[in-house]
Amino acid sequence: MHSYSSSGGIGCDSPNISSLFPAPRPVVALAFLALCVCAPAWAHIGPPYPIMQNRRVGPFQVEVWSNPDVGTGSFYIIIDPPKGSGLTVPADMKVQVSVQPLSKRLSVATYSAWREKLLDHVEFKTLVPFDKQEMWHVHIAFSSATANGAADTDVSVTPTLLGRWDLLLFLLPFLGIGVLWFKAASVKRSRSRRARAARARAAQ
Question: How many CA atoms lie within 13 A of 69 on its CB side?
């Protein structure tokens, strides 16, 4: 995760935050905690995550990873023969991904996956359009001349961008840190002016 630290200032009368706030880390930690608390309301931002693992489908082990975003979602289907079985994934294997909102407001839509050119495992990928943030049912089916299988799961589709209010909520902790910094700078400058005035009076 990210870490943050600050020190030093600008000019001879610049503020030193560490002198006013001996332990700034708690402030940053609180901001980070606020981000974590708010995170569930935001979109999924980041790499794909598993929505199906170690599922036995026909003679194979199937694993599905997804990045289910509103607009275009991606699915990665990994098919592995059981260890020691001597099986291989047929070259003519075809994989399809079918999706439908759990509300059934739309009919089932099916998309073909293409085989990725990988050396260490067999993986198929497809892109699926999602029009709305909600729970969707996902049906994975594969077929070849020698093996067939299917598996089902559900996935939560999330927006790719933050809304205006979510973005404001995201920025609040950073705005708070900025306010603290400028307040510290103002206090430091005020102290410096009083100290210079006191020295000037003492020198008279």
Answer: 16
